[in-house]
Amino acid sequence: MKLKLLILLLFFGNATLAQDSLFARRIVDTLTSKYFWGRGYTNDGMGKAARFIAQEFKRYGLQPMDGKDYFQPFTFNVNTFPGKMEVTINGAALRPGIDFIVSPESRGVAAKGTLEQKDSVTFIDAQNRVMVSLQNKLTWSVAQEVGDYTLIQVDKKALNAMPACISTNIENKLINNFKAANICGIVKGTVKPDSVMMFTAHYDHLGGMGSATYFPGANDNASGMAMLLSLAKYYAAHPESYTMAFMCFAGEEAGILGSKHFTENPLIPLSSIKFLINTDLAGTGGEGITVVNASVYPKQFELLKQVNAKGNYLTKVYSRGKAANSDHYWFTEKGVPAFFIYTMGGIKAYHDVFDVSKTLPLNEYNDLFKLIVGFNAELMK
């Protein structure tokens, strides 16, 4: 009888863990789908993602942080590429996102010209203010303004000879006061509702470059959003003595703008936040995790390592100092203790069209989830 009971417990325990991974995979598949168009600035990608997350919060039973709705709106300028995205070099048409990217601050241009070599990787069409830069890897980003030139970064492997002539048909549009929103929800504490543990992740990514190419952003940061939603769902079903707050930020890729806006316009007192955990790039973990601010908060970092060792979760927990590389930063600047946790190993896709769900392993997702829950429990003691 005892053996049968043990087998049943093990079966249902493993089923629960598998379900956690399945939940994460569904979230990542959803957020990286074409419908959300890279969760960016064209095709209402970011707006669709914001509404999806708010619906999930409501479905889990989270309350709006301000008592009204889940949205904290703000605006910023952004340069977009909604239309034509055509580049031909030496008579060969290049593929957007695969063979070339347009630097995010570039202006639109429709022209033909010859290229003058400036160094081993730089070629210029001075008449049309077009520059070609040969790269080993293409990495895109977001710009809030438009330059007076067009910079095209080309994968070296896409060309059989040095660039000599170029034809471009690229459309850009600067959007002033682009409308974005942070998504904010809470699970009220049962004993100490004025004490807050906060979990954050950014839901935006790079969006689309032209009308046919988008950047899925599986690891960055659909994976972190899956972790945040897993935590939100868990704590909604298992309320703690402290209030659990969940912040999904927009504008991270444009300069960690959503978190900056929240810290300057907080919906809850920042002094009530006892600790903050920010998750970004949470989709791998075969080589462990890195913890930003570990050296800033050594006692909490030691506690995290103890929880990890006791649970035998992740192979390594690396320490890193202060860094302005994600949404935790503005909170730390305001005196809120915070860790930014990201996974190590696995895929190398980052800010490119190859950061897709099907190659994201999520191999340490369950262990990272358990580590965060265990660490959070220790912090509340």
Automatic annotation (TrEMBL):
Keyword set includes Ubl conjugation: no
Annotated keywords: Signal
GO biological process: proteolysis
Molecular functions per Gene Ontology: metalloexopeptidase activity
Pfam families assigned: Peptidase_M28 (PF04389)
Domain Peptidase M28 span(s) in chain numbering: 182-372
Protein name, as recorded: Peptidase M28 domain-containing protein
Signal peptide: 1-18
